[in-house]
Amino acid sequence: MNGKTALGALLVLMGGWIVLKIIGISLGPIIGFLFPFILMGLGYIGIKNDSKLIGGAMFAIGLIMLLGKLSGLFLFLGAIGLVVLGVSMFRSNNRRVY
């Protein structure tokens, strides 16, 4: 991709984003969720191109951002695991014969 094509693609994306904002569609949450993946991808490319320090730092920052965004999901899965563990403990106590 040459410089003119990249600039044209950037202008189309920016214009499309502005039009979506004017008609009331917000891409903020989607971009906010995708940004850690983009950062991790750029970090991976940096590592592959022998820029290990910068690439590793970008990948680590993206991973930390992603873990922060998914913390609610981890908490939810942990709560489900605790409920399942508690129910299994109740069932195992009811099967014992004294």
Distance between the termini: 77 Å
**Kindly state the mean pLDDT as a whole number?**
86
The geometry reads as elongated
Radius of gyration: 23 Å
| Beta fraction | under 5%
Q: What low-confidence regions span 5 or more consecutive residues with pLDDT below 50?
A: none
Number of strands: 0
Strand count, sense and closure of the main sheet?
none
* Helicity, as a percent range: over 70%
Number of helices: 4
Order of helices and strands: HHHH
Report on the structure:
This protein is an all-alpha fold and 98 residues long. The chain has helices spanning 3-22, 28-48, 52-69, 71-94. It has a domain at 28-91. It has four helices and no strands. Helix 2 packs antiparallel against helix 3 (52-69). It is elongated, with a radius of gyration of 23 Å. 4% of the residues are buried.
What are its keywords?
mainly alpha, 98 residues, elongated, 4 helices, 0% strand
How is this structure best summarized?
The protein is an all-alpha fold and 98 residues long.
Q: How is the topology of this model organized?
A:
Blueprint (H helix, E strand, L loop, with lengths): L2 H20 L5 H21 L3 H18 L1 H24 L4
Helix pairs in contact: 2-3
